[in-house]
Amino acid sequence: MNKTPENILTKLADANQAGIDMDSPKAVVTFLLAQGEKESILFFYKSNSIEFDFDKFNGAVAEMNERKN
After folding, report:
1. Which of 20, 25, 32, 44 would be 37's cystine partner, CB 3.0–4.6 Å?
2. Whole-number Cα distances in Å, 32 to 15, 27, 45, 69
3. How many CA atoms lie within 13 A of 69 on its CB side?
4. Is 15 exposed, middle or buried (0-12, 13-18, 19+ CB in 10 A)?
């Protein structure tokens, strides 16, 4: 499993701290957009595609949660 970049984990932790529903990719992406984090959002898309990678998103959230505990 690929490690999630530190900056992405930090952005997810920020969203979590702000009370964003981490089970909702849409809520997290909306939060990141409001923070001006367009580049961070692109991390969650499949390479050369406009398809959101839910597995990558869920894996990154799980990794963020592991670090939190």
Report:
1. 32
2. 8, 9, 14, 23
3. 6
4. buried
**Sign of the alpha-carbon torsion through 17, 38, 22, 5:** negative
- Number of alpha carbons in the 13 Å side-chain half-sphere of residue 36: 0
CA 15 to chain centroid? 9
* pTM of the entire predicted model: 0.89
Residue 2 reports pLDDT greater than 80? no
In a 13 Å sphere around the CA of 6, the CA atoms on its Cβ side amount to: 0
Half-sphere exposure of 1 (CA within 13 A, CB side): 11
Here the tokens at position 38 are 């367009």
